UniProtKB/TrEMBL annotation:
It comes from the Bacteria. Residues 43-278 form the AB hydrolase-1 domain. InterPro entries: AB_hydrolase_1 (IPR000073), AB_hydrolase_fold (IPR029058), AB_hydrolase_sf (IPR050266). Transmembrane segments: none annotated. It comes from Mycolicibacter heraklionensis. This is 2-hydroxy-6-ketonona-2,4-dienedioic acid hydrolase.
């Protein structure tokens, strides 16, 4: 019988808190670990995701950082604004979160949509981003097939949040399709069954609309303005873009470092946390 993987067992023994903060009127859910006296690290999940994307990373990072994994605007248990969400909306919310916790600067690490938001934050608010990690980040291209796949899987999972539809959405993220990811599926299923989440997902899917996406995309001019030291993490089996796209992103950011994680899909921080935590911390703690 395959070993059962549990969000709770990932967090057992970790001194963490789950709670809510007021980010300029937006009730925002977070998982938090570490000492408030340490530098701030914000972890940003992907499209349609939630803070549990980082359950396997909180302990390692809490040794060195006041570590926050938040449900981004319109996601998880955070307030839903009721309008299509573009990158600027997420960046504004992130800045409001940093203000709410009293952090003038923070290191920002984002996966997928979270990476897109993190990059834009570093462009628009260079004084507030100490170090930047882009983990299988979105925002550099518009692939119609990938965009269609994200919409199809995501809307199916919220319109009929059965075990099968939600599991299909989760398995799409992962390189190893033999695992069932039961506890992550159950966590997400509960979120997708929240009242009003179908409308919330439509707002989240705005960035998969070609017109809306086009005005939010980042190119050489935008990436070239990033001044924070940057690590780009990519994987061998990312379903959204190949390794060359990850290298292209890194090439557009002055001085960026590129790291490839083999055997992972879109969630390397979850699929291979030991390697991810090592690479991540080596970069974040560099002097």
């Amino acid at each position: 019988m395959p070993e059962f993987e549990s969000v709770w067992s990932d967090l057992q023994g970790v001194a963490f808190e789950q709670g809510y903060l007021d980010a300029r009127g937006v009730r925002t859910r977070y998982l938090r670990a570490g000492d408030p006296g340490k530098p701030v690290l914000a972890l940003l999940h992907g499209s349609g995701g939630h803070a549990e994307a980082y359950v396997r990373n909180l302990a390692a990072h809490a040794e060195h950082f006041w570590t926050w994994s938040v449900d981004m605007l319109g996601h998880g248990y955070t307030d839903k604004p009721g309008h299509p969400l573009e990158v600027g909306h997420y960046v504004a919310h992130l800045m409001d979160v940093l203000d709410a916790i009293g952090a003038q600067t923070a290191s920002i690490s984002g996966e997928s949509l979270g990476g897109w938001v993190a990059a834009r934050a570093a462009i628009d608010h260079p004084d507030r981003v100490h170090r930047l990690v882009l983990n299988t980040a979105g925002g550099s291209q518009a692939d119609p097939e990938v965009m269609k796949r994200i919409i199809t899987l995501s809307m199916a999972a919220v319109e009929n949040p059965s075990w099968e539809t939600v599991q299909a959405r989760i398995k799409w993220l992962m390189a190893d399709k033999t695992k069932d990811y039961d506890d992550i599926v159950a966590s997400r299923q509960r979120i997708y069954r929240l009242p009003g989440f179908v409308d919330a997902m439509r707002d989240i899917m705005a960035l998969q609309d070609p017109q809306i996406r086009a005005r939010n995309l980042l190119g050489p001019a935008e990436y070239g303005r990033i001044t924070a030291p940057t690590l780009v993490v990519w994987t061998s089996d990312d379903p959204t873009a190949d390794v060359e796209e990850g290298k292209r992103i890194a090439s557009m950011i002055p001085g960026a470092r590129f790291e490839l994680m083999p055997g992972c899909g879109h969630w390397p921080q979850y699929e291979d946390p030991e390697t991810f935590n090592r690479l991540h911390l080596e970069f974040l703690l560099e002097r």
